[in-house]
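Tutorial sheet, problem 5. The two components below are modelled jointly, 860 residues in total.
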Amino acid sequence: MKAAKSVVEIWLWGGPSQLETFDPKPGASRDYNGGLKAIPTNVPGMEIHEWWPKLASCADLFSVIRSMTHGQFGHESATYLMQTGRLPGGGEVCPAIGAVVAQAKKAGYGGDLPPYVILTRAKGRFSEVGFMGAEAAPLVTGGQPNAARFAVDGIVAPEGVTDVIAKERFELLAQLDGWRPAGGANAEKAAAFDAAGDEARRISEGDAAKVFDLAQETDAVRGAYGRTEIGQSLLAARRLVEYGVPYITVNVPGWDSHKRHFETMKRRSNETDKAVAAFLKDLAGRKLLGSTVVWMSGEFGRTPKVGWESPWNGGRGHYPRCFSALVAGGGFKGGCVVGASDETASAPVARPVAPQDFLGSIYELCGVDPDGPMPNSKGKKSALLPPPSEAGRLHELYAEEG
Amino acid sequence: MPLSLQRRDFLVGAAALAAWPRCLLADAPPGQAAVWENPDGTATDSVMVRRLYLDLAGRIPTKAEAQEYVLSSDGGKRSALVDRLLASPEFADYWAMRFCDILRVKSEFPINLWPNAVYVYHSRIRAFVTRNEPWSAFGRALLTSQGSDFRDAEVNFFRATDKRTPEGWAEAVAQTFLGITPDALPPARRAGLSKAFANLRIKNTREWKEEIVYVDGADRRPELCNRLFGGRRAEVAAAFHARIRGWIFGPGAPAVSYGGELRLENVLRKIALSDEYARGSVTGGFAARRLDAEVLDDAICALSGASRSYQSPAPEPFTYLPGGRPTVCVEDGSISSSFLSLFGRPARDTGLEDERGSGVTAKQRLYLFNSGRLHGLLGRVVMPGGWQKNPLSKLPVPQRVGDLYWRILSREPTDEERGHVMDLWRRRRERSKGAKPFDLMRDVAWCLFNTKEFLFRI
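Model answer (structure tokens):
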């Protein structure tokens, strides 16, 4: 199978409910499903929650896993597990899948932009690079992609700094930056400083920066994704895929709905549904989906039983024992449902999927050996992932060659 | 190499020190190097004042502080400044931060000290610095501690490790006091150290996140401390000196013994007054170091009059740190910013020296070239305190250039440097009569922020 070129991770930070996404339980009581329904998709027999109608219209493009499971209830430890495949501890902090894939693929990637890009904010309280350090750090765009001008911090010159001014600045800098050590380690540091500056200029002055110029897209395309932060972030992600960036993360905060869950969830679902459906259709239309793995999940799901009482007022807590994820493209088949949960989405009843199986599958489709050593420049010899669970990686979802 | 200060590095000997920096003296300084280096290969006053402030107080000097030092003809001015800085609260803040890095002071994953314990532990570590307490006495207080993590700050040494087992504590002791990383710790030594903690336990209380560290049975830790800080005192001292020298002179600095001296302030005074410390960085071999992320952040804030406020949205109750405090003072390694991550603030996950990023990356330079935040602050650097009745706005351009140089680089610009700026000013005036000195100054400030001289302690 040909390895996927890029990965797009849509991270639903906080932990979205499995019941109001891809594992609705219309037959359960209101204490579990909140009185809400499931809707059919364009794949016969496959239903998802009623708040995701646009994804329902293109379910042939993606598959859902209804039996994700682990035992970490805290955001930090669950995120670490879902991003690294490992439990916390062991004396080292491992890099997230994004840093690993970017590190593994950077040699074959010729772009000027860093091989790991995050839109628009980092997860926070989590190190994407772990022990790999600053050299593997992602480019975190900052800025607001839905603004008239997506001011990607560092890449796009600030308003008011024209090309003429920028040129004059750099000419003056060359004249004023006079400290030049005669040799030894200081000269090496100075040379590294200058080389980093040259690389930075190549990025900001070359074609790379234009990738973030969303004004180059038509209003119709921008509108299809939704004029929201996630919508325009995913549009930028598509442009980054076209550019060839190996790993792109779109962080979507706001799913930690302890209180007033249904109000929050409906609002977040609405804009996310629109954006992700447009993104998948756009990738498919441009023949990019086959070479791009897309995955969407949070660190865990939410408690199946609704807390109606005060102070939750219809809330759901953290719940890692059973939750859902979406995968598409890059060698994953569409239109499939993997695993199943019990009648309240409280526990997997078929084909449990552990984080290391999930990540291992993405690694395999990217051509990164999940059973091999972790690619790094720090001399660490750790294995990339723990061994797969008994149920194993998601081979049943791998598309047939051809 | 996981820890830059492994024993094999600092046991090189005096011979290596004698040979080390002078190997570069053969090259004469190029013309402009006189700004940074005297003909005898020593650092100029403007370099020295900046160096001392950065190393001892974790900040750049103000214009007045720099001028006071540089323009003084007092032969004892270096010694006087060292004394003043060592007595300053900034010294305690900066060096507490350094020790909090190696002692892994952070609330959350993977250390999980939690906020209450972070603040009492940080306070205790800062007290170690302000009291000039011997490293051995501080070590003994940590290693023999018992009690609540909220009230008995020292017990957090045992909590601030991701392996709360005798073996994990043995590794923490070896790394902290002997400079031996876990992967280099010989099995027999690991086993020996572990025995001291065989009866150490940690239990929860009914108070949220309060834990009690206690000994269940015979306490063998005093015996370990007697060995460590008695019989093996020389080894502990060598590791302590190597660590401090590594922070000042960079990884791989040759070993120098300061005898049995185990007080931080005394060791730093010896270093700061040494000939080794006075060497220049152009040909003299003094190792340049990129500014720490926190120090750089504080420098940008100090120059622009901006302030940072920090908050942590977890755990509840949320933590809010008021604006106006330097970033160096942020106690908790879990409270950070994208700027700090970008410039290599250590995560405090392992306590290893190489967690702190000190290299220069393209992403860092992109930030300094183009960041919207920095661009906004440059105007405030040019016109500190705002436009209203600001005397700077009345100064002619050449003097304003001088003012910026003093504030950002702690020195007067050379005639050549001033000439380059004036050339640009002339070109702009020719292009447009409406060219504004403010815009020019903002571009000069941008340039100075992007020089190696600003980004490095040289």
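Marking note: Strands of chain B lie at 147-148, 200-204, 211-215, 289-290, 310-312, 319-321, 456-457. Full credit if you identified this.
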